[in-house]
Every structure is written in C-alpha cells, then in structure tokens.
Amino acid sequence: MSQASTPSIALLFAAALTLFAQNPDVGHLVASDLASGRYTEAKELLDSALKKSPRDARLWTLNGLALVRLGKQRDALASYKTALQISPDYLPALESAAEIEYETGDAGAAESLRHILRIRPGDRTSHSMLAAIAFKQGECETAAKEFAQSEESASEASQSEELGACLVRQKRAADAVSVFQRISQLQPEDEHALYNLAVVQFLAGRYNEVITTLGPILTKPSPDADALELAGEAYEASADTQHAMSALLQAINSNPDMSRYYVEFANLCLAHGASQSGIAVLNSGLRRLPNSASLYLARGLLFSELAQYDKGEADFNTAEVLDPNVEFGSAIRGLSELQQNNLGDAERIVRERLRAHEKDAFLYYLLAEILIKKGAANGSPEFDEALNSAKKSVDLQPNLALANDLLARLYLEQGKTSEAIEQSRQALRSNPKDTTALYRLILALRKANKTAEVPALVKQLVALRGQVQRDEGTERKYTAVEQVAGQASLSNR
Predict the structure, then answer these.
(1) What is the mean pLDDT of residues 472-481?
(2) Which residues contact 242 (CB under 8 A, 6 or more apart)?
C-alpha cells in the first residue's frame, strides 16, 4: 500500500512522540531511531516498553514498523494484528497491515481495506487496491465499481487497462471495446493504445473497425509488423484476401526473422489454393531461418496440398528432427526425461517402471517412442522392440491415440500400408482433430494407391491446421491484453 504508507508513517511518528507522555525522552529516542534508520535500537526500546504496557496498540504498531524496516514482514504483520486486537479501528495499524497483506497476496488484504473504507470512506488508495484485487480474481463488476471510486486523471488509463483486460479474460471483448476506446482517447499519441484497441475489436469480431483503428499506424513509412499482422487477419476475416496477403508480406519484410508471419501467409495460401506462392515465400523464409520447424511444417502442408507427398513427408520429418514437439511429431509434452539429450535416462526410468507396472499402456508407448528417438532403424533389433512395444500399448489401450500414431508411422516405414491406415483411422476415431493421424492416413492411402478420399482428407487437414493457427492467434491476443494490464498494474502501485 505504498500510496497510503506515507500518511501511515506520519501517524506512527506522531504516535511515537506522544506515546510516552510520562517519559518524553524515550518517545523522542524511538522516533529518532526510526527516522535515522536505527531500527535495531528502536526495536530494543519498544521491546522494553511492551513489557511494561502490553495492551498499548500504538506500541505494537510501532513495533511492526521497526520489524518491517528490519525485513521481518511476517513478524510485523503479527504485531499489527496484535494492535488491532487491542484497538480494531486504529488506522495506522490497519493501513500498515493492509500494505503487507496486499504486497504478499494475503487473503486478508480485502477485508483490511474495506475496514479502512468504513473509517475513511473516500480513501482512493484503498479503492484502487480493492479494484486490483478484484481484477486478479476476475471479478470485473467489483473491479469496475472500485476503479470508479479511485480514478484520478493521472492513473485513469492504467486502471482502465486493468478493467478492460478483466473483461477480455472473461471472454467479454465486446464489453471491453468501449474501455479501450476511452484509453485511446486519453492517450491519442500512443500507438500501443491504438493497437490494443484494435486487438480487442478483433476479438469482438469488429473487423472493419480494426482496419480503421490501425489506419494511423499502417500509413506510417515503416509500420509496426504486429499491427500489419493484425490488419492481415482482419482483412481475411472480412473476406479481403488480397489485402490480407499484402499486409502479411509487409509484416515479413518489416521483420523477416519472425517465423509466425511466414506461417500465417502460408495458411492463407492453403485456404485459397495458392500453394505455389506460399512455397515461394516459405523458401525465402527458410533461407533466412533454416532451423525453423514451423516453416518446414507449413511447407510440408503446402506440398501435400499439391499432392507432392514425398516432399511433404521430407519436410515433416525435418520439422520433427528440429523440434520433437512439433505438431506432427510425437506430441510428448511436459516429459523432461524425453529431451533429446536425456534419452538414456528416459529409457532406464521407463524400463524400471514397466517392471513394476506390466499393464501400463502409456509406458509401453513411451518405450517405443524413446527407442525411435534414439535412432532405431527399420530392420534393427531396436526397431523391432519399438514396434512390439507400440503394439503392446495398443493391445492394452486401443484408443491411445499417441500409440496409434506411432504405430502407423512404424508400419509406414515397413511398407505395411493397410496396417498404417487402420491405426490412423483408430487414432482419428479417438480424436477427430488429430492432425498427425490425418496426415499419416493421407500418406498411407496415397502409398496404397487408394486415393479416392485423399482430396477430401487434405481439405480436412488444411481446415484443422487453420483452426489450430486461429486458436493460437486468439490466445496470443488474449495474452497481449493481459500483459498490457499487468504492466498497468505494476505502474499504478
């Protein structure tokens, strides 16, 4: 409660000077020690005084201040709470306790702040802190009411950002638009304010307004790449693909080391049958970013759209080598043992666990995955063990999509297309949005010369990938709004 701490300290020093009416020298010594940073000496004086007067709330409050200055916040809070047990409405103790509770995230902060407001109803700082607490808890209506009672011209924009982000977090972007419009009016020269408004307008589905809002940014000699990206998405959502592609190409030229822009351009090409154009742009990107798994993945999709499956498979394999967690990879996330440089430990751990859990389908899948990641080649004993382990996993749990995907891949390597087709279909029955299974199915059908359903499956794959990208883009926008509010919250303390 840094904004309130100054009056609290003033009151505490006043207490120190008036506390020892019968012994003014001690009172002056406590005040002098606190003012001069001699907190240990002040604490010793207070300890002695508390032995004589253990029911004096002012003494306990001053004791808390000394403990704060000594870096003992928990003990200080306990001292303030003791003061409040003796004198529940003693404002210096209330403010000091609320400050610690707020800064440490203590659940008691809100009640302490409300207690302060019962004593001093117009306290803007307490309202502001209650608003921030409500924001963190997602209680937007409460936050709005508290903000309204705490607003000052110097902080209105930052407080509004917190409120707007709260609304966005609750998926109420339409309600947040007016909040961010107000912020842009308060900060007419701030490009970030315009961009944030455009983000919220996009989330609310007001795509034409996005373009209008971004106008002052887009017409500059060197427009911001993120603004160009957002404009491209808004153009595409408004069925203006030509301007969407132009905006994304500008974003690429503005920041050619950002792989996301290339991928979004490739997605537009996938959606509109412009695969050759997308491949040309991705080729340019890969010359600059040769280790980008996402660019190889995007180009592999474009090759698949053109029925150039061998090139597509090569790109997918390269993507998986560069990033084992890439979308078409093994989908193993959060398992630290499976990092590339720790596969030996991973194998040992999984084998130990299998000895204790012989019916665990997922452990058999993990063993197969590890052996393949260690480089088991078709025809080797390790490959055969991986294949048998994947089969065992599927036998134990037929709907384990990860194992179905891996088994389909191993069958493809062996040339067993019928088995690969069946495993891919099983994975899709478990998860119709499994893009890995969908691609394997396309590849297996192609190799088996069963191409009748391939065009429809390719369209399905493109649609799924497009949805993945849209979901990622939406999440990125929500995160951007949250970051704005977080920065505002910090600057407002």
Answers:
(1) 58
(2) none
